[in-house]
């Protein structure tokens, strides 16, 4: 049904199975299909008049329908010419408003031998409509006619040490690889196709306009084995759109997305993690690759990064329209650099002096903002180029965690004007399409991220929504920054959340939660909803807990010890102030946080109860494990990324053992709860099993919950709610003297699984029962 909103006139079209509308609004194409012969075809409709034109008719499939920017040209794929064949191939067609003409098929010059037009490759025009981009692929072998009986069928996976990817990774990616297509282009007035992507160099990036003389082709094919232990490497090439000729730009770029193409296609650019430098090269080969930041007097790499690999930059680059310049970041400031090497670098902001962090703030127009989001602030990747001249910056105070926005310029240093700043967290604003006004959200730990509206200077701001009025009926809490020294005398920050009515003369139970560095989230709102794995700070604060969220810096080779050296001194510093009951300290974390908790309770008795979600308990076995969701080997995590061992199991055997909680489980004196699900695709759940059976053998109190069919976190709401209840029961029992539930006291036998949840409280308060001796207060 097509309805003219001005006149109310309606037009109906029968047997429609799909339709496409031109972005310009002046064209509608639909595919029709009927049970009987003669009804299949593609039709073009003038939305103003409702008149329909048959573009192509006949039995077959019609796929990947696309208009050009003007809405006057149409392209699509169809296998109508070979529909009666056993393996009908697609051709690409083009229409200028009337009957379609074939542009190319598998026999067209330029299509590689044994390849065909792929129905899985998207179709698009260049901005001027003279180039038509589509996908090709190797033609698969026909299905064999001979049927094999199930009893005679052999099904197996063959692992070969020469495989580029591990067999599990191949299986995860199998469908994607079967459906992979390779970019090709047909030029107006030419009878040949230019193949741009190939099986050995499969990934192609082009400007959105499709008008550049070169595209960027990248490949990790020669380096794929390394992804198991060393990360992703790729080579980059400039490919001539007219001839398909390619030229090497850079080889073996590692990490941070590899090489990228500037918005207009003038430059390739990348982060060089070895030189810790942004680099760029002209796509037309008119000059060499250039260092853009190597000679500047500040670091453009993340100086706090503590992984055993080259550090990443401070976020992605932003381009000025026309590829005139790149904007990149140091810790505090925005810099303008010239990829052509003609102009000196310019520091546009002056954040270093006040320890403020400036970032380019992209502004959406006319809607589409992530309203009511509980995060999100700051810049982003390259995207489209931004206009030269006035620019909006996000601002973040690195000390107080306040945030706001400022106005500056892309072409002049020091022209920065603060517009709004406060002890809140602002989300990305959206600008009215036809007026100088913004809409945004702001939040704190207490303040829900309601909608605010203001003028172009963020002045005359007023709140226009009240989406969470019921919060006023509940106890909540307040959040503040706290500071202490680690065991190695490193100054650290953390978040301390106090319950409503906090009284310094009383002693409170303490809940500790962490995941690397989190203090920048001081002003983040967190609704008290059950979630995938972790405690909700507002929920526990409303029930009288103090919540502590410490930052953790890491020493390579000793991640467990690093957590211990940061977290325990922070807890002890709070206890020393007198308002924390030293016998009622709990700790909770998931995944990487879960591992660190499992490690810490083998070294300290400061915690009265601990929950470690999806923990690695044995690094020696986890090193050889698989991340089943991606099929990747877990080796890279230990050698290069988060687990931070910094070497192989054979080179650093002692480190793997030292950092493995299961080898020291006999030292544990803290009751432990674990969440580890049997479909965990990140941390194999046998890691939780190893910890459980070790503590059970040692007759130590341990519980493990496995929500069947769930992954690394909980996806089903019913399971999230159940987990939140059980975690609350566990901590309440050990930290606020509540009775234990039956699932903790007696367990739930497998014979009543699914019928009996065991949630009722039947046990004695912990103060009235015996148990494992826990001489808390030590290190």
Account of the 3D structure:
- This protein has about 775 residues and is an alpha+beta fold.
- The protein folds into three domains: about 1-140, Methylamine Dehydrogenase, Chain H, CATH 2.130.10.120; about 295-470, no CATH class; about 475-770, Alpha/Beta hydrolase fold, catalytic domain (Rossmann fold), CATH 3.40.50.1820.
- It contains ten helices and 47 strands.
- The strands form eleven sheets. It has an eight-stranded mixed β-sheet, with helices on both faces. Strands 29, 33, 34, 35, 36 and 37 form a six-stranded mixed β-sheet that branches.
- Strand 31 (about 405-410) and strand 32 (about 415-420) form a beta hairpin.
- Helix 3 (about 560-575) crosses helix 4 (about 590-600).
- The radius of gyration is 30 Å and the shape is globular.
- About 40% of the residues are buried.
- Residues about 370-380 have low confidence and may be disordered.
List the helices and strands and how they pair.
Layout: E1 2-3, E2 10-11, E3 16-21, E4 28-32, E5 41-45, E6 52-57, E7 62-67, E8 74-78, E9 91-95, E10 101-104, E11 115-117, E12 124-125, E13 131-138, H1 167-178, E14 182-187, E15 193-195, E16 203-205, E17 214-219, E18 233-240, E19 246-254, E20 260-261, E21 267-272, E22 277-282, E23 290-291, E24 318-319, E25 326-329, E26 334-337, E27 346-347, E28 356-360, E29 364-365, E30 390-397, E31 403-409, E32 417-422, E33 425-426, E34 430-431, E35 437-443, E36 451-455, E37 462-463, E38 478-485, E39 491-498, E40 508-513, H2 537-542, E41 546-550, H3 559-576, E42 580-590, H4 592-600, E43 609-613, H5 619-622, E44 626-627, E45 632-633, H6 635-639, H7 653-658, E46 672-675, H8 686-697, E47 702-705, H9 717-735, H10 742-745
Parallel strand pairs: 29-34, 40-41, 40-42, 42-43, 43-46, 46-47
Antiparallel strand pairs: 1-2, 3-4, 4-5, 5-6, 7-8, 8-9, 9-10, 11-13, 12-13, 13-14, 14-15, 16-17, 17-18, 18-19, 20-21, 21-22, 22-23, 24-25, 25-26, 26-27, 28-30, 30-31, 31-32, 33-35, 34-35, 35-36, 36-37, 38-39, 39-41, 44-45
């Amino acid at each position: 049904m097509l309805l003219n909103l001005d006149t109310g006139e309606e037009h109906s079209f029968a047997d429609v199975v799909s339709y496409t509308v031109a972005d310009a609004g002046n064209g509608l194409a639909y595919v029709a299909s009927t049970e009987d012969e003669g009804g299949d075809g593609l039709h073009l409709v003038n939305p103003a008049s409702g008149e329909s034109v048959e573009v192509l008719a006949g039995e077959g499939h019609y796929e990947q329908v696309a208009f050009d920017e003007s809405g006057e040209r149409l392209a699509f794929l169809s296998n109508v010419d070979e529909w009666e064949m056993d393996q009908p191939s697609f051709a690409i067609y083009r229409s200028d408003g009337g009957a379609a003409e074939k542009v190319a098929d598998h026999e067209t010059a330029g299509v590689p031998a044994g390849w065909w037009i792929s129905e899985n490759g998207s179709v698009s025009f260049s901005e001027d409509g003279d180039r038509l981009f589509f996908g090709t692929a190797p033609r698969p072998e026909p299905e064999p006619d001979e049927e094999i009986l199930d009893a005679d069928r052999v099904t197996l996976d063959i692992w070969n040490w020469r495989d580029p990817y591990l067999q599990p990774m191949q299986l995860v990616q199998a469908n994607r690889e079967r459906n992979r297509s390779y970019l090709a282009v047909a030029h107006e007035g030419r009878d040949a196709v230019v193949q741009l992507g190939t099986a050995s160099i499969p990934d192609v990036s082009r400007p959105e306009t499709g008008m550049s003389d070169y595209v960027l082709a990248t490949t990790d094919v020669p380096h794929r084995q390394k992804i198991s232990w060393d990360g992703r490497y790729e080579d980059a090439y400039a490919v001539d759109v007219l001839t398909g000729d390619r030229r090497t730009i850079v080889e073996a770029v590692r990490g941070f997305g590899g090489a990228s193409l500037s918005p207009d296609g003038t430059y390739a650019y990348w982060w060089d993690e070895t030189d810790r430098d942004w680099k760029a090269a002209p796509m037309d080969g008119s000059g060499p690759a250039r260092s853009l930041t190597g000679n500047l007097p500040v670091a453009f790499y993340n100086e706090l990064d503590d992984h055993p690999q080259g550090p990443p930059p401070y976020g992605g680059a932003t381009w000025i329209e026309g590829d005139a310049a790149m904007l990149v970041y140091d810790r505090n400031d925005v810099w303008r650099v010239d990829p052509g090497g003609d102009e000196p670098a310019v520091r546009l902001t002056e954040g270093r002096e006040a320890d403020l962090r400036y970032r380019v703030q992209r502004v959406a127009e006319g809607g589409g903002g992530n309203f009511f989001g509980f995060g999100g602030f700051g810049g982003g990747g390259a995207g489209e180029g931004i206009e030269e001249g006035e620019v909006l910056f996000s601002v973040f105070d690195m000390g107080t965690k306040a945030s706001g926005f400022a106005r500056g310029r892309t072409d002049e240093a020091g022209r920065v004007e603060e517009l709004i700043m406060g002890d809140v967290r602002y989300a990305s604003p959206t600008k009215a399409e036809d007026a100088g006004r913004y809409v945004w959200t702001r939040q704190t730990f207490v303040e829900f991220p309601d909608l605010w509206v203001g003028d172009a200077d963020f002045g005359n701001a007023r709140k226009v929504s009240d989406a969470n009025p019921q919060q006023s009926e509940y106890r909540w809490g307040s959040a503040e920054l706290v500071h202490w020294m680690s065991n190695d005398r490193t100054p650290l920050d953390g978040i301390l959340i106090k319950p409503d009515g906090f009284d310094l003369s009383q002693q409170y139970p303490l809940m500790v939660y962490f995941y690397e560095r989190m203090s920048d989230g001081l002003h983040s709102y967190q609704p008290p909803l059950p979630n995938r794995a972790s405690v909700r700070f507002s929920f526990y604060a409303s029930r009288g807990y103090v919540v502590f969220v410490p930052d953790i810096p890491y020493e390579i080779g000793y991640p467990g010890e690093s957590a211990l050296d940061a977290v325990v001194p922070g807890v002890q510093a709070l206890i020393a102030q007198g308002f924390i009951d030293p016998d009622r300290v709990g700790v909770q974390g998931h995944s990487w946080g879960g591992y660190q908790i499992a490690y810490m309770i083998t070294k300290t008795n400061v915690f009265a109860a601990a929950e470690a979600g999806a923990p690695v308990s044995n690094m020696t076995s986890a090193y050889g494990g698989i991340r089943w969701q991606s099929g990747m080997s877990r080796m890279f995590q230990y050698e290069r990324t988060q687990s931070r061992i910094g070497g192989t199991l054979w080179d650093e055997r002692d480190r793997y053992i030292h950092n493995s909680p299961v080898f020291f489980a006999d030292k544990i004196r803290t009751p432990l709860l674990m969440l580890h699900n049997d479909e965990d695709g990140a941390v194999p759940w046998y890691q939780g099993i190893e910890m459980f059976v070790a503590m059970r053998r040692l007759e130590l109190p341990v519980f493990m919950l496995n929500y069947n069919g769930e992954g690394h976190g909980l996806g089903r709401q019913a399971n999230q709610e159940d987990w939140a209840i059980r975690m609350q029961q566990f901590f309440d029992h050990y930290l606020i003297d509540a009775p234990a539930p039956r699932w903790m006291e007696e367990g739930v036998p497998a014979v009543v699984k699914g019928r009996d949840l065991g949630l009722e409280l039947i046990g004695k308060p912990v103060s009235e029962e015996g148990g494992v001796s826990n001489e808390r207060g030590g290190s």
